Amino acid sequence: MKRKIALLLAMVLTLSTIQTNYALADEETAVETTAETTEVTAQPLQLSIEDAIKLAVENDREMWKIDDGIKQMQQMRKDGSDAKKQAEMLMDLDLGTLSMLEIDVTGNYVETLLAKNGYYIKTADTQMKLLEKNKEVLAVGIEIKTKSLYYNVLIAEKTIEINQAKLASANEQLRVINLKFNNGSATKAEVLKGEMSVQQAQADLDSANDDVNMAKLNLLNGLNLPFDTEIILTSNDLNYVPTQQLNLDAAIEKAKSDRPEIIKAENALELQKIETHVYTAYYTSNLRQNKSAVEKLKDAELNVPQAYKNVELDVRTSYLNLVKAERALVNMDKTVELAKEAARINKLLYANGMAAAADVISADASLAQAEIGRYQLLAAYNLSKLMFDNSNLMGSASAGI
Q: Which pTM value belongs to this model?
């Protein structure tokens, strides 16, 4: 009986071990299957220009710092308000009460006066206003920089497309030259010229492939994405929208009310007025502190009109850059049309024995160069337009392109 029980227990243990092993094997198979499925379903990142800008803003550290700075200024304003109340309370007390309470205001009287005149509250308010404006400026700067990086990839991809067409054309031209050479109507020099054209077209295509890889790396870096991320740009159409009638004077006036340089200069003047009032009230006119405060006020007063002048100069420069970019684009459109016609005519002439193979090859190369140049100018025009449209917030020096 005991032997039967022992045998039964052994069988139960064996079955239990087998079931456990099967369960573990199933789990491992499931994990492997999941891993394989994950690997298979990994897709390239479809990236529109709006998505790129959103990613860049979300991952920008300066934006985080500005948010932290705004919170600090909110706390500073609260502290300044408390300091103002305390200073007013102390100023209302007579000397006897202050002595009895063992409060000495002479040691930091200037700071007390500054607090009573709302200097620290004003400092927090002006800094908060400036930080909020800087946040707008930073957002625009990120948009411009991201679009520039995005456009660079589009230009590189367009260059590949044009060079592929040029390579196909060069191969076709070489085929025709070889046919003519076999018929005795073309020279060996023309064959060599055709082969050189094919080789150059291939080299240009290889270079364009390298350029697109580098442009994508720069874009990934700007978006704070891993360098091995595969991306496909979905906003791949760069359009020319002619600039309508521009009101330069209105743009200048708007910039004078919005630009952070002017806000900063005006804020500094307001704060310096309070500081100079306190220092000249406390220190006599022959003391260094009094003279220094007066000089600081003069500098602050002069900085405001200079800031207005600098902003106007920047807006006017942005306007001229836009006009220049549009003129260059319009001229390049005409150049592309002429290059297309020249390539067409040279092919007809060559087919009728009235032009050399070198003329056809040269015309094709000029057309490809003109088309690439046109696309580059189109991107430059769009960026210049974006700069002018946002010249009320930022200038060309702070755009970061």
A: 0.76
